[in-house]
Amino acid sequence: MNNSRYSIYRMENNIYLGDCLCIVYKANDEEIRLNSLTGSDIAIYISTSMDISNINSIDQLHSANLFKKDKSVILRIASECQFGTFGDSHCDCESQRIACLDAIKNFGQGIYVQLPQEGQGHGLSYKIKELQLQVHGIDPDGKFIGKKNIYEASKILNGSSDVDNRSFSILKTIFNRLGFNRFSYTLIGSNPKKIHTLSVEVGVDIANAKDVKRELNIDNVGEYLAKIYKKSFALSNEDMKMIYDVLFRANNIPERVTSLLKYIQDDLSHGHQFRVDRSILKKIASLSKKSKINVGLWTAS
């Protein structure tokens, strides 16, 4: 088999995973286009309690007794987020990355796939323009046009409110070649599109899906409201209560968040079904007209 597009490295003493395997797959131009990749290199980290000292090639990896068979394998499919890595508070990508790696290490076996899909497949240059519109209301010409939520910003920049441009179909080629389709997985994530694609298009056996603990604050809470509103994310009641408390405690709710709350409130009034607890979502949406007279902290309500 042609392994020229795969590279392997036995990494020692990784600060998150300990001794682990790292695979890099170099996508070709067609794969980059079809999967909205913003770079060619896909990194895959493999952590296991099994002996990996003799795995030095892709063929050896494919046939290796890689994981214990009596339990599932944790799987995380993540997209790059340079701004999160460098400390931007408007997302929690970095804290999620670390939490996922910790979960894999503590569980004893897992695979972390890092896809070059900055800005949900639109690129870092797009993402910086989107954030400038969301946070400061300034368009690419430097004019103030009012703060926008993520979908309004996308409409201005792309002519469409369809924010997520990613595809994950390239993983079918990679998983088949590496023998990863032998295993049953616990997926870390709550994106229904990703779960469907991995199951149906890639052929991954997903036994269940769950999330790591989120680090919510007033800067990144809008990202989760956007996922609930447009992407049908299923968040736990605990996460929903955290969203409520973050919004209630805030001295000022950002305009991009307020507009999303109003959209959600309008959809609720028209009977739209979301994949979260409806009563908690209604309580959250009511904060578009935030008042401490008629709204109390969740823990006190």
The fraction of residues assigned to DSSP E strands is 15-25%
CATH structural fold name of the largest domain: Rossmann fold
Examine the secondary-structure arrangement and name the CATH architecture of the largest domain: 3-Layer(aba) Sandwich
How does the helix and strand content classify structurally? alpha/beta
CATH superfamily of the largest domain: GTP cyclohydrolase II
Q: Count of DSSP E strands?
A: 7
Mean pLDDT: 91
Distance between the termini: 62 Å
Total helices: the number is: 12
Main sheet? 7 strands, mixed
User: Residue ranges: pLDDT <50 for 5 or more in a row?
Assistant: 291-301
Q: Order of SSEs, N→C?
A: EEHEHEHHEHHHEHEHHHH
Q: In what order do the strands lie side by side in the largest sheet?
A: 1-2-3-5-4-6-7
State the shape: globular
Radius of gyration (CA) equals: 21 Å
**Fraction of helical residues:** 25-40%
- Please tell me the total number of domains: 3
CATH class of the largest domain: Alpha Beta
